[in-house]
Amino acid sequence: xxxxxxxxxxxxxxxxxxxxxxxxxxxxxxxxxxxxxxxxxxxxxxxxxxxxxxxxxxxxxxxxxxxxxxxxxxxxxxxxxxxxxxxxxxxxxxxxxxxxxxxxxxxxxxxxxxxxxxxxxxxxxxxxxxxxxxxxxxxxxxxxxxxxxxxxxxxxxxxxxxxxxxxxxxxxxxxxxxxxxxxxxxxxxxxxxxxxxxxxxxxxxxxxxxxxxxxxxxxxxxxxxxxxxxxxxxxxxxxxxxxxxxxxxxxxxxxxxxxxxxxxxxxxxxxxxxxxxxxxxxxxxxxxxxxxxxxxxxxxxxxxxxxxxxxxxxxxxxxxxxxxxxxxxxxxxxxxxxxxxxxxxxxxxxxxxxxxxxxxxxxxxxxxxxxxxxxxxxxxxxxxxxxxxxxxxxxxxxxxxxxxxxxxxxxxxxxxxxxxxxxxxx
Amino acid sequence: xxxxxxxxxxxxxxxxxxxxxxxxxxxxxxxxxxxxxxxxxxxxxxxxxxxxxxxxxxxxxxxxxxxxxxxxxxxxxxxxxxxxxxxxxxxxxxxxxxxxxxxxxxxxxxxxxxxxxxxxxxxxxxxxxxxxxxxxxxxxxxxxxxxxxxxxxxxxxxxxxxxxxxxxxxxxxxxxxxxxxxxxxxxxxxxxxxxxxxxxxxxxxxxxxxxxxxxxxxxxxxxxxxxxxxxxxxxxxxxxxxxxxxxxxxxxxxxxxxxxxxxxxxxxxxxxxxxxxxxxxxxxxxxxxxxxxxxxxxxxxxxxxxxxxxxxxxxxxxxxxxxxxxxxxxxxxxxxxxxxxxxxxxxxxxxxxxxxxx
Lengths: 426, 358
Hints:
By secondary structure, chain A is α/β, with parallel strands linked by helices. Chain A has helices at 2-15, 36-57, 76-87, 99-112, 142-156, 174-177, 180-190, 207-216, 228-239, 256-259, 281-291, 306-329, 336-344, 350-355, 401-419, and strands at 23-29, 65-71, 116-117, 135-136, 165-171, 193-199, 220-224, 247-249, 270-273, 347-348, 365-366, 379-384, 389-392. In chain A, strand 1 (23-29), helix 2 and strand 2 (65-71) form a beta-alpha-beta unit. In chain A, helix 3 (76-87) runs parallel beside helix 4. In chain B, helix 3 (46-72) runs antiparallel to helix 10 and helix 4 (80-97) packs parallel to helix 6 (130-150). In chain B, 48% of the residues are buried.
């Protein structure tokens, strides 16, 4: 009886949401738990951009965008619940900001026909559009990131890493394990010595890992961290006086909140980034049309920060793909399948980014049927603790495709064989 | 007025000892079974299956399993998450190694593998008791998760360390993989739940179950009257792990489809199942169901009411939910240590006398 009463109440609660003619963008965010520090600014940026488009342009092609937020807590079970709860609303695209949830959703979105965009995370081999029809990971993925980091280190050490030792400090999950294969390939190619050191979820305790780093004295430490793990790692690195300029985080380990807890000790810490951080004109629009009107998703303090910018960039790519889809199909009311066509025909060039008020926010790239991965370029940035800001060290560096392409091919073909998928795009 | 026994005469030993001795109870039980098998499969959709029914049924199996060990045999265990992981990985290895064998056999096989592992980690229970045993099973939890992360053979050397359930069918209908229909997913779990719950109920009132309860109530006295503690404790570990293993296999193969061991089967899962049986009621099959329903439904219900119904921010709701669940656990521990099952029992007593309680 308790169950029945609960079901009735639940049914009533479910039926409450009104159905309007609009474009639905679910935001599977996490504002609680050990990963909230990264989840909050990303989600704020994602939602604010849609609000901006509605307020300033009256929607996408005249149709308002509606964001449905659903809290996942970076937990796969809640992620699945959020997916099932929102997909019936006419969801056009999912961006879960979690590699674990991505793995969960890849088979589901492929069966349901809803595109999944995992920008710089998720399953790397999804870059192969021949196998993964509904999954996109432009503009860059983990294997690109690993390669960009090694390329930067090669440049720094005069083209030779033969006598160097590199340690990978990674989150012990699907996310953290992704770059290992690429780094092993690169280690064989360039002759450096690779040690992998795992940090278990959530990563608040890393004494033994840093003891190992102190003992083995690697020349460089590369980190694949997220959430509270980043802050702890940077603090521990400072504690053992590891030279910060030899410590490189990936693009999920390079935001303001990761370095500020360590104070001045974090000065010189480097991180990758797939989008540029600058005072872009679009932020002024967000302040005028969204934050000043009190419509911001957060308290407005995150505007312009690394992950806010990335969340906004993710929304921007979704909006551009939706516009492309509207052009292709000649209707403003697009469906998820039309959205997919738009994503596959998406072109981001300098002129377009300039027009959007975000010049140079990302690399120039175009998506095709076979290539869902974009250009894969990334930049390196360094933390200046004195001024409290990230400084870009390089222009966009392109990854070593000779290593990555065969790996993508191998992994995606294995997936195709396992699931009996026929190749597309021929 | 309700639950009247007047006129409900028992004329045989079997009739006197049936699970539902009161007629109304029996009809209610049959009505629930009828609804579960003949009504829900026709109305269920993806959301109800994935958010409510499938997790509820799977957690009910795990809760029954843990209840056998903790509630009936009195051996405290914090290794549930680890044993669920054994079930999931055993199922995955069997599924990928023998793709032509029926998935039901794989799930049962996963249960047997977990039972063997459970017996192994149950051995210390012969020497240590109470909190010390809890710590030993905690070691099992951490060891097993570490093992499945560390040894690539368990995840077939995949790049991400994740395991993914390929599509498998029962009588031509897919029950795992992305193309599974909601009703198929629901029905396979339901069949396992009904068979396992029926088995558990009958085990617990037979010789084996009585020896477990004797050990729980006082192990020295039990030994003196002729209960073999070795046999009783190890069978409890074996049966309990069998159930938990099946829950783990279903959790991975039917419910989630892709699993990462540290995230899906961490220590929080052990506590979740333990909370279920504490809230539901120790030593009660009904309590296992009630506890599982409570812990699965409450967060979904709160979320839908607060975010969907009242439009509150999602983070506030998530935090409130933690507070409410926590507060309820404390309230239960203080006000009704025997859980929902005891509330149900008291309610039934009251209803029997109502409206003339004197």
